[in-house]
Predict the 3D structure of the following.
Amino acid sequence: DAHGLYPPASTLKVLTAITMLPRLRQNATIMATPAAASVVPNIVGLIPGHRYKVADLFRALLLISANDAAVSLVQGSGSVSKGMALMNAEAHRLQAYDVVARQPNGLPAPGQVVSAYDLALIARRALAMPLFMRYDRTVSATFSATRFGRVPMVNENGLLTQYPGAIGGKIGWTMA
């Protein structure tokens, strides 16, 4: 069922990453908004009004699947709506026509779907991006200045550590 439509869960964060990586300077900072800091579940614990390095937000996005980091990264484009438009345009540029992205973190949203076929197209693009691969292959890092203090981040993608030859990607799950 290559074109069956399913909730994307955190796999959608790959589309967020490949869309935003070329648009955001890695040494720049983004100010966390109340909207980003209030995402539930809040994984990294962003503090509204605090500035975070883009590189740290990408590590949080890809290592520990930080939902709040995803929102901050798309807000770095100017707004969530602009970021989501860029993500959907990137999907169409890749000919991933089944994707309907509504949340940059893949959390449930009405009408948000993706197909296995489109995830393969998105993953193919991600795996060809050296900067994506640098973040995606990181085994561990630390995220500072959060409501939780320093947050240790260990890559949650067991494929990287448990399967010889695995080179990267993104796992995801949903209650549905």
